[in-house]
Amino acid sequence: MLVVLIALACFQFLSSNVHAYRGLLEGPLHASQLVDQANLQFKVQVQEWKNVLLRGKQPADRDKFWAQFEDQERQVQDTL
């Protein structure tokens, strides 16, 4: 009976250590994924800025491209 109790205590101890280790591994992975997402969104934001500069000669086009740029800017800021 004592052996079973010791085995259960060891199992609980190992289980909590595995859970803590998993948290250590997933933290940097999640941060890396957020950085990648922000980087991709920023690249799209740069493209939207280029659209404003290169294709926004007409006021209607400029307003459309500016709105797209601002939307992308909000997405980047929300990610960060």
Walk me through the structure.
This protein is an all-alpha fold and 80 residues long. The protein has one domain. Helices cover 94% and strands 0% of the residues. The protein is built from 2 helices and no strands. It has helices at 2-55, 59-79. The longest helix has 54 residues, at 2-55. The chain is rod-shaped. The mean pLDDT is 90.
Brief account:
With 80 residues, the protein is mostly helical. It has one domain. It has two helices and no strands.
Descriptive key words:
80 residues, mainly alpha, 2 helices, rod-shaped
How much helix, percentage-wise, in residues? over 70%
Uncertain segments are none
Biggest sheet record: none
SS summary, helix count: 2
H-E order:
HH
Mean of residue pLDDT values: 90
Structural class, from helix and strand content? mainly alpha
Query: In total, how many beta strands?
Result: 0
Beta percentage is: under 5%
Sum up the overall morphology in one term: rod-shaped
Amino- and carboxy-terminal Cα gap: 54 Å
Radius of gyration: 25 Å
- The count of domains is 1
